[in-house]
Structures are given as C-alpha cells and as structure tokens.
Amino acid sequence: MIAELREIAGTDGVTSRPTELKVYECDGWTIEKSAPDLLVRPRTTAEVSAILGLLFRRKLAFVPRGAGTGLSGGCLPINAPVMICTSRMNRVLAIDLENRRIDVESGVVNLHVTNAVKAQGYFYAPDPSSQVACTIGGNIAENSGGPHTLKYGVTTNHVLGLELVLPDGEVTELGGPVEERCGYDLVGAVVGAEGTTGIVTRATLRLMREPEAHRTLLAVFDDVDGATRAVSVIIAAGIIPGAIEMMDQMIISAVEAAFHVGLPQDAGAVLIIEVDGISAAMDEQGRRLSELVLGAGARTVRLARDENERAALWKARKRAFGAIGRLAPNYATQDGVVPRTRLPDILREISAVSRRYQLRIGNVFHAGDGNIHPIVLYDERDSSEVRRAIEAGRDILKACVEMGGSLTGEHGIGVEKMAEMPLIFSPDDLMVMAELRRVFDPDERSNPNKVIPTPGACVEVATPRRQAPL
Amino acid sequence: MDDLDPSELMRMLAAVVDTDRVRFPDAREASAARLIVEPASPQEIIEVVRKCESDGFTLAPMGAARTLVQIRRQPAAVCVSLARMDRVVDYEPDDMTVIAEAGLTLGALNACTAAHGQRLPCDPANPELTTLGALVGAAKSGPLRLSEGGVRDLLIGIRFVGHGGRLIHGGGRVVKNVAGYDLMKVMTGAFGTLGVITETIFKVRPLPENYSLAITSFDTAADALEAARRAEEAASLIHLEVLSPLLGHKFARPGRSVVLAGFGGSRTEANYYRAHVSNALRRNTQMLTGGDAIAHYQWLRDLDFAGPAMVAQLAVLPAELPGCLEACGAEFRAHAASGVAQIFLAMNHDNKEICDAVGRWREIAHKAHGHLRVLEARSDVRASLEMFDQPPEPATRLMRRLKAAFDPKNIFNPGGFIAGI
CATH for A328-411? Predict the structure, then answer.
C-alpha cells in the first residue's frame, strides 16, 4: 500500500512514521486526538485522483486536511486510516482581473489570494482570523467566515466553481466562472460539507474591489446591555458596517493589561465598528455612526485617526484570546449564534450560567452577526471545574437554540458538536442530509463519522471545548 | 397513471384533502397541470405527496409550474398551488430576517418590509406574480443581482416536503450558520424537481437612500456596452442594465441602445457617484431621482418582451458579454456587469429559425465558457428544443443521483429540467 502510494505521490509525498504523524493528530480542537496511519501529500489533481482511486479499490476511508487550523475537529481521523493533505497544492493558477475571478489550487493559503491581487486594488473577502495559515480548501469545507462577513458574506458567496475529486477517484467540474449555474447548485452543496463529499483540488473565486477608505470607531459603554442595544440601533438606521465586534469588561481588562492600547478599564463593554467606502463619504459616515451610538447610550466614541490607530484597535480585538492566558490556566470557547436582537438575552443568560456554575465567562465576538464566542475560564487540575465548564458550555448552546439560533456560526460541527445536532434538526432532516452526502460519497469513506451523529460514532466530550484564537 | 381522467384524479385526491382544495386549471395553467391542489398547510401537502407517490401521479409545485408554463412540453398530473399559504410567519426588522410561507408573493413581502425601510433585494419581473417558492425554485433574479447577489446568497433557511411526505428543514433564522448541509442551495434553482417548498427564511437588506437612475442612449449596442463597462469601473452601482433598441424605446428615442445605471447612498455618496457615472457615460445623461427614478426602475425590472417566440438567457464571463451579444445578433436586455443577458426572437420567426438560433447562441455561449438556457418558447416549437444546457458528464451523473435520492419515485416535476430530470 505504502509502495503504491509512493509510486503516485513520490517518496517524500507519503509519511508513515508515527513520530511525524503526531503533528497531524488534531486540528485546533485539541481535546480529541487521533493520528492517521498514513499521510499523503499530493501535488496535483491527477495524484489526488490516483490516490482516491486506490483507496476506493481497497475500500479504505480517508480524511482531507488543509492547514489544520479548523476549530471543531473536522480533520480528526475517526476510523479513517489515510490523511490527504493539500498543503503542496498551493499554486495560484490564473488571475482574471477583468472578470474579477481567480483560479487557485485548494492548498493556497487564504491571505495569499488577496496578496496576489492587492497591488491592483482587489481582495478576496472571506477573512477568517486564521487567514495567514488556513487554506482555501479548508475554508470551502467549513464555509468559513471572518470579521467582514457582516457586509461581504461568507465563503459560499464567493466560490463560483470547483474541481472536486470524488471518493472513487473521478474528477468532476462543478459550477464554473460564470454567474448563472447549470443544473443543481452542487457547488453550494459541497461548500460547508466539511470534507464529506471528496477532495476539492481547485476553486474559482470571486474577487472584490478594495474600498477606497475605512473608518474605525471605538464606542465605550457602561454595560453589555447598552452595547448590544447600540448594535440594533445601527442596523435599524439602515447601516451595514464592514464589522461590529464586541468585548466585555473581562476581556477589556485582559487585553489592556497585555497590549496597552488605551481601552478604558472601567468600561462595561466596547464595540469596534468599521465602515468602508469612498473617501469622500467617510467623515460623514463616521459622524453619523458616532451620533447613533452616543444616542444609544455610549459613554464616549473614539475615532481611529490614522491607519496606526486602526491597526491598534484591530490588534486588540484579534489578539484578545491571546490575553486570556493571564486570567486562568485554561479556557474554553463556543461558536453559538442568536438572532441579533436576542444578544442582550443571551448575554444575560451567559451571566446566569456564570453564576450558576461559579465560573468566570468573558465575551468577545462578532456582534453584528449575533455570533457569540463566550470564553469559560477554568483550571484543568480541578476536576469539578472541568465538569462545570462542560455543563456551562452545553447550557449556553441550548440557550442559543431556544432563542432561535444555531450551534455554530463559523467553526463547523466537526466531531465537536455532533451530539448537539438533534437540538436543531429532526431525524428526517438528518436523514435527508445523509442522503445528500451519499450522492457524492455512497460508501461514506470521505471524512467518515462527521457532522451527522450516528450511533457509535459520537465523540463523548469529556473535557471542555477547545482553546484557540478566533 | 398520468393519463387518468381529471375527474377521476380529482376523486382520488379528495380522499386525502378536502374537496374545496382541488380544482381544474384555468386556461393559462392548463399547459402546466391537469389538476390543481391548493393545500392550506404543510400537513395537507404531505398527504398529497404521499398519495401521488403511492398512485404514481406526477406533481409540480405551482410556482415552478407557472415558470414551466413557458417551457414544459406536457402538463404534470397535479400541481400544488401555495395560494393559501401566503403568511409572513415572522419578520424582525432589527434582525433583518423574515420567515414567510412559500405562497406569499415577493411583491407582498416587500410591501410588508418597506414599512421598515427594508426589502428582499431580488427583483425578477412582476414581483406581485412571483411567489417566494417560485423565486427560489427557479432562482429568479433581476437588475439587483449586481449589488445584492442572487437568491442563493439571501436564502438562509428552508422548509420543504420531500419524498415519503417528509417535512424537512435546513438552515435557520440566523444570518451566519454552518450547522448541517446547505439544503437551501440544493433547492435553489431545482425547478421543483426535489420537493415542494413550504417556507422560506431570507436575509433582508436596507432600501438604498437617495436612489438615482442615470439613463443614456447610444447609436450602437457596442457603444452602450462599452460605456456601461466604464460606468461600472467608475462607481459602486446598484444595477447596470443595457437594452437593445427594441426594448430601449421606453427610455430613449427609437433605434437607440440604452444604458441604465442605478446608484445611491448618503447624499455625499450619491453626489459622488452622479458625477462619476455622468463622466463615464460621456453623453447627455438623464439623471432621475426620487419617485421618478423608482418608477423608471420598475419599468426596467418589469420589461415586457412583447410576446416573443423565444427568450433565452445567456450567461458568460462579463468581459465576453459584448462580443457574445454581437455574435448572437438579436435584441437583448443585459445585466451588463454580471455577464448575464436575456436575448429573444419576435413571434414572426418560424420553428426552424428558432431552433437554429438556440443552437447557434448555445455554441457562442460555450465558446465564452458560459451557457444558455431557454426561458420561454412558443408551445409548437418546444418539442424540438433543448431548454436547459447540459453540465459536463460527471456533474450530470451526480445530479441524476441527487434526483434519485431526493425523489426515488420520480414524481416531482419530471422531465422539466436538465438531462431528462
């Protein structure tokens, strides 16, 4: 088997030594670990096709992997001996600025797409916080978002065409470079399918024109309630900013202690709000936003005066998770979503959960989308705290669902949240989703035991949810 | 069983739904269905689907069937009309999401959201005749696709009755959601071949402030398309339409090709775009604002091709559109920057000319990495036309598998989609 794989992918394309495979035993969800028996790193679509053809004949399951920055255990091998990593398929194949399209191999790093067209004034919109490392293939699997989701949409809104190698090795073209689709929208079915439909080897992506200018505001509030109300006020005024991010008091203190960016330590919450567009309109937009948030009860509003101040504010937000280490030995976070108007309710519920389990919980999240990331602090040496942290997490997710929300806004189900899927989907819903998956993968060999809970395949979460930057 | 006498069909359906829910089609509906059922709840749709599956009747959702009136070769046995399922279930303006039954029309939905300064920014012609089910089922779009994307970008949740009478839901009412497979995408543009959509959940967007419309006419279509390209480079537009002379006469002197560029924003933005668009169009541009601009936009949206023999939709790379339109040599309406255009032949063309045109246009589309779909054709020519373009073979095989998985009894609108599906 190894010899046959080496024949396809070259000697350096196949790894079987356990010490080397240890690197691949988990993604950003570090609670469950399981290394593959074999790692293959193909360089071309033809190699991927030959590898999958071989695995098909041997009836072996496999796991696709990009950069391994996923947050829900999406590329954790569960009864899948072979891992296929796309990291060596990292070429930008064609740039077509006239039509605003770019063709890339699936192992291309997200930020490299924008870097390839930045000088000409274009960008690739989905920008997950891991964008310096994560790959387009991984983004397609997870339907990744990012801070600018609010205005620009997520991965599925920016993928026009795919080259997909089916689990039996056949290469298929889905979608294409044009706007209209021909037949069923199979591109839409593959994006967000968490690698269960085969291996995406190439993608045609949409490029956007870089806005002329940005304005970034820091709005300071006495409490979390005021900040979440301000989000509704902005939206009600018909403004869709590029991003609206929130940090509560616990996070502000930790970030300020770590990075000294001048956040007010006595504030109950802050919002970072960014608008973009033509330069001529930025002052007016900044003023209008300031008036709105002050009217909604903000204590003060500070406008980033230049690119340095803007960068400092975003640094504070993006590194918030790095600062948490100062507060507790361990932390766990989640990715629930609620309708925007229920943000005050879910944050009150999170406070109640914090009191109920006697655990500190901080909040830093994408407020404009209603996508929360509560951070539960605990100490893994205290088994009672560990147990309480798990229960607190589950209570928060259940509350999200009860408020009309969802289990995950951008991290995916993976293995992490499979057990909670029945909270939002009926057995019939899940059965139809499984039927959809089997259209691509009749023997369920591509990333098996993911997304849809089946008896025996569920991972029992015995320790709190992952720690990771977001 | 499809050749059953309609009265007998009616008697059989009355066994599962009240008789007042079943009626014969009117003249227009007759080419789509032999009998119409108007259920008042998902439960009644479930009963109808089960009955059709067990007795082997074909069944098409009415919204899609109304679209298919223009392309279907034979009527389906039963059409499900969602006319009685037209409620706004929940609309939360501050969340910018709306849940509505699939029988509600786009026009009625937007009348409801307009009170809060919002809209579902999908604008096919005649929104008051377009149900949300049809909007999704046929993936309809209009000028706003340039700035707001397509239905697939706005649909965040769905409910449908699938095979076995299962009521299935996907997505939800939150704007960011990656839980489970994306059933919304699968149902969008499926032309009712996978089930009957009962409920839709959409993101809505703010109505633009200071909506303005720039109208300029040109001697030739090529000049108009070139000017449109400059306008698109110069400003962030809400829509950008180019009309060939036959359609342009409502907006300019006869015989001229017309560019209609819409824009808006704060007063500063609108002024900025006005200057840049005028400059890009380089002509005596007529600038409309307020009610005038909106009235002209509505004419543009609802453009009537005046009883054509055939209308087709061309989709190519945007930069290739001018060349393709010139090669096709027919009257057109183009969503210029999206690379999409509707091209058509007038009623006086004979069947051979229509078939030849479709063949020739399709070849032109393929050369430009695109495709061509017939939207509407005179009934006597349908038998000799391939309405849908075919995807490449491996993809087609997946599509057949999808159809077989979602509709194992092959009752949902069979024969009206790609590759014999």
Answer: 3.30.70.2740
